[in-house]
Amino acid sequence: MKISSLLTSPSTTLSFEFFPPKNVTGSSTLFKTIKELIPYKPSFVSVTYGAGGATRHLTHDLVESIHKKTDLNIMAHLTCIGSTKDEIFAILKRYQDIGICNIMALRGDLPKDSSINPFPYGGFRYAGELVQFIKKHFPDFCVGVAGFPEGHPETPNRLKEIDYLKQKIDQGADFICTQLFFNNNDFYDFKERAALNGINCPIVAGIMPIITRSGYIRMADLAGGARYPAKLLKKLIDADDADIHKIGEEWSVTQVTDLIKQKVSGIHLYTLNKSTSSIRVIQQTSLSETLS
Ligand SMILES: Cc1cc2nc3c(=O)[nH]c(=O)nc-3n(C[C@H](O)[C@H](O)[C@H](O)COP(=O)(O)OP(=O)(O)OC[C@H]3O[C@@H](n4cnc5c(N)ncnc54)[C@H](O)[C@@H]3O)c2cc1C
């Protein structure tokens, strides 16, 4: 089912993000997680894509596998950096053939090594071009694009950034899903700036419950994420592993509760392929009301 239709609902949707595991153990852990999350009736689940790397086929395999084994509504992430138009066409065709109708259209990060040309084939320079390509060749796909409440590091000009986001919507994107954030004010301000620029599509909020110290340190290194509020850092700094888990969950519960109160279109939980924190967040917020 198209995510755009689900996002017309007046209540907040719930969705989960998974990444493709690299080995059999990771795969069985993920399918256990999926089984544990199915009772919470997500509107959709998404599968990330390894930009520019040799792991891309893992995304296609996982999407196919979830599609075969469950009734879940799936969104496949697709990055265009370093790909030819023919390659992208073939991937989209494969998804269309198995009945996937939701694509998260992304550019992908630029290679860290500046001597590598990220656009060797004259393919796609920005995600907006991918959106346009999808809508031209596969008009029935519902397309989501990325938004960055804290800003994307490549565009220090915040006015231009929202102009570029508007371009992606004008090029055909149906909704925006955000990078994870820990301060809801960043999200509300982003949403308001988007609206001022004529962006009226649904914006789904990306929330990641912190699970481990190494995890939140790694997230700080990501493009466009993450800025930890001092109030949160103060709690995390001297905490042991068990406490970090609990602090992470409590912080997400507070964020989600407030977002729902402010009538956010959707909550997208970055699960890190684990179910415990996501389940606790759902159970402690009105996200669980969709179950009754
Ligand atoms: C929800 C979400 C899911 C993600 N999933 C994945 C994933 O599965 N795999 C993965 O590798 N990465 C993923 N990413 C990360 C993403 O690929 C990177 O952050 C990447 O650097 C930017 O991708 P984008 O789609 O926002 O690119 P774009 O929208 O193309 O933007 C890239 C940069 O270029 C600027 N820009 C855009 N259009 C123009 C223009 N016309 N002219 C000049 N500048 C422009 C933007 O402001 C931005 O700074 C995800 C990010 C989010 C928020």
Q: What does it look like?
A:
With 292 residues, this protein is an alpha/beta fold. It has one domain (3-291): TIM Barrel (Alpha-Beta Barrel). The chain is 43% helix and 14% strand. It contains 11 helices and 8 strands. An 8-stranded parallel beta barrel has the order 1-2-3-4-5-6-7-8, surrounded by 4 helices. Helix 4 (85-98) links the parallel strand 3 (74-79) and strand 4 (102-106). Helix 5 (127-137) runs parallel beside helix 6 (158-170) and helix 10 (241-261) crosses helix 11. The chain is globular and about 50 Å long. The model has no long low-confidence stretch (mean pLDDT 93). Bound molecules: flavin-adenine dinucleotide.
The number of E-state strands comes to 8
Strand content: 5-15%
Q: Give me the strand/helix succession.
A: HEHEHEHEHEHEHEHHHEH
Distance between the termini: 21 Å
Helix-residue proportion: 40-55%
Which small-molecule species are bound to the chains here?
flavin-adenine dinucleotide
**Contiguous runs where pLDDT drops below 50 for at least 5 residues:** none
What is the CATH C-level name?
Answer: Alpha Beta
Total of domains: 1
Report the sheet with the most strands, covering strand number, pairing sense and barrel closure: 8 strands, parallel, barrel
Q: Average pLDDT, to the nearest integer?
A: 93
The gyration radius over C-alpha positions equals 18 Å
Number of helices: 11
Structural class: alpha/beta
> Strand sequence of the main sheet, in spatial order?
1-2-3-4-5-6-7-8
Per the CATH scheme, the topology name is: TIM Barrel
CATH architecture: Alpha-Beta Barrel
What is the overall silhouette?
globular
